[in-house]
Structure formats: C-alpha cells, structure tokens
Amino acid sequence: MPLEDGDPVRWRGQQVNSEVSGTPLPGGTGDPPPRSTPAPDSSRTEAMAEGWEPGPALGDGDVTPRGARQQAGQEPGRHEEALMAELSELVQKVVKSSSWWERHGVDISILACSFLLLPAGFLCLRSAQAIPFLVGVLTLGVVHHTLTVKGSHLASHNALTESKSWGKVWAIFFIELCSAFTAEQATYNHVKIHHGYTNVIGLGDSSTWKLPFLNRYIYMFIAPLAVPIITPLVALDLLRNVEWKAALRTLCCMFLGLYCHYWLLLHVSGFQSPWSALLCMLLTRSLLAHPYIHVNIFQHIGLPMFAAHRKPKRIHLMSLGVLNLPRNALLDWSFGHSLISCHVEHHLFPSLSDNMCLKIKPIVSQYLKQKKLPYNEDTYASRLRLFLQRYEELMVHAPPITELVGIQ
Fold this sequence. Notes:
The protein has 19 helices and four strands. The chain is mostly helical.
C-alpha cells in the first residue's frame, strides 16, 4: 500500500553508519553494498534513526550536494519517487509476462497439498507405535502452519486470487477458521499498519512481539509454545473493535475450526480422553511456533527505526527496515518465500504471491544494489546469536507501542 508522503532523506554520519558488522553501508561511503549485507545491530539503531535528515537520496551513483541538485531544478523527493517507479515498472513487466500458474497456481497447489495430507496425519496418530505417531504429529504440525501462516498471510494481502470477493472468502477461511483470529483486525494490523509504517516507532515496528518482562531464554525458547493459546485470546479481545456481525462470524469460525480439530483427534485419531486430544492440539499447533516468532522479530527489530514525522520515502523505508533470511525448505513451504528469503521483495510489492516474490527477487536485489540502496540479508543462526547477545537492547529497552502490529 502506498505510504504517506514524507520528507526526502539521505544518510548522515559516516563514522556512525559506515561500520556495520564490518561492512560499509550504502550511502556511508558511496560504495555499492556487498552481496550479503548483514543487518545493523541495535547499538547503532538509535543513531541510525537520528542520522536521517532532509536531503536528496543516494542513487545511480549520484552524490551531488543538495544545493547543486536544487540549483539544477530537481525538487526534493522526486528522485526517490522516480526510483520506486522505475523498480515498479521492471517488476510489472515480469508480472505481466507470468502465467496464472506462476502468479497464483504454485502457492494454491501448496495449500491444496497440505489439505490432502490432513487425513494421513490424523490416521497416523491412531498408531500405538512411536514412529508412525511422530510422523502424524509432524504432518499435522507442518500442515497447520502452512494453512495458518502461509495461507493467512497470502489471504490478508489478497495474493491468492485476483478477485476481491474470493479474496475475502479466503481471508475468512484461513485467518478465522484455520488460525482462530479475526480477519478484519489481522488485515488492518498487518497490511495497513505494519506494511504501511514499517519500522516507524509506535506503529509498524513489530513491537507487539517484545515482552520485556521475560528473560531472553524464556522468550526465545519457551514462550512460543503458548502461541496457540494466546492467539484466540488476543482475537477475542480485538473483537471489541469490529462490528457485531463480523464479531459473531469470527466467533463461529473460530469455534468451528478449533472444535473440528478436537473432534477429528477423538473420532479419527482415536484419542481416549479430552485432555490427551487437547495436548496433541497444542503440540501440533506449536510445532513451528519458535521459528514463527523468531522470523517476526529477526526481519525488522534491530534495523533502523524512524519517527512518524521523519520516515523516509517508501523505497528507502523498505530497503532499510526489512531483512531477508536464507532459503529453507521447511520454512519456505510452511511460511512462504515472502516471509523468509523474499521479505524485502514482499514489503516493496505486498500484493504478489510467494512464488512471484521469488521470481522478482533477482531483479529487486540487483536494482537496489545498483542504486546503492541497502539490501539486508543475514542467516537465521546469526540473527539468533545477535538477539541472545543483545536481548536487553533489542527487546527490553524498546520504544513503547501504540498499535498491535506484526500479526501474520
């Protein structure tokens, strides 16, 4: 979604900004960024955010002083808009030349395959032997996260279909029935706020994931197990903000989705007691909760953050405040490319499907690097070490939040 007009910006303070994880930041020295640019750590985040001031953006190797640019008749902000327009044109050519299968079919097939795996998962849980039982748990866990994370995320952006009516249907199905959340609030908080104000303090900075009263190990490794319990509770609280008809629909869908899961465990998988069925529900629904929470914080927190009145233009906001993780077969399938290795591409073009984000990734990365704009990439292990080492800075001493953001 288009961002509000903001001041044109440029990077200031080479001594502060040019040394990030041993590599120069674009705009600090004028050199193009390396192929894999590690994310800046939190000790420099505040200095980075304060380091932006009105002036021309760096791009096309252009380091002309601001006064010279204004004398040449170029209005501030036009250069940034031209960069985004040029990149959008390049991406649009790829989208128009792509088939329906590439635009939507690949991701729909992944979701369909997940549905087809459900009977096998429930039947495997009938076995008294350990290996088939574990296969059933793993199958249902992966299927659950594919439907609730990948399906809900694509549906919230209407990336599963080009029809708005069907997009609404899929959003209700994946977000409310499968994920036990409210579609209206999920779409508003994620699409309108998080995407519209990425890393803007108090709005789109993913700070809903910060729980400063927990220590680092409990937060990173134990608290994610509670996500299946917390999610519907948060949804119930948010129903106060929607119309009563939408609230009633959400309650019905949430109850139906949870009860169907519970009923199938009792009558298909053969669980003998309600508590054992509920425990299995918790186990399968929290199977990939750890990477789900980790990915949400790794890709934004610790990167430059901005005040609402001083946020940069869209292309700078997304290139500075978003990070890509490496491809991972399990997470690519369950979460989708747009949440893992193509998160930068997704924030620049949020209406594209996971497969299309993967297809435009070479174009976007090459363009940003050519224009000397950041293209943040880091490994999962590296980000995990960073958050464990600098947890106090990144997660405890965090700006206060005013909106719920980051719900996928």
